[in-house]
Specification:
Elements: H1 9-19, E1 29-32, E2 40-45, E3 50-55
Antiparallel strand pairs: 1-2, 2-3
């Protein structure tokens, strides 16, 4: 698994294996999707399926509203 700042792919794989056994067909790989403004957006694939993973930027404090940024939780 390639290093992907802001997304721990081995941890994501462990979570998916526990939450939905058999979902992953292989080790996940990811890439940064550009064009986002507030949240980190990644495309993740296992070679068979593809998902989009979004998360707040590193250093985000839950519950703290940063002026000018939309709230990801509402989506």
């Amino acid at each position: 698994m390639a290093e992907l700042p802001g997304l721990d792919l081995p941890r994501l794989a462990d979570h998916l294996d526990r939450a939905v056994p058999g979902l992953l067909a292989g080790k996940p790989r990811g890439e940064l999707l550009t064009g986002g403004r507030s949240n980190l957006t990644r495309a993740v694939t296992d070679g068979r399926s593809r998902w989009v993973v979004r998360r707040p930027p590193p250093g985000h404090v839950p519950g703290r509203v940063v002026p000018g940024l939309t709230r990801m939780r509402r989506r």
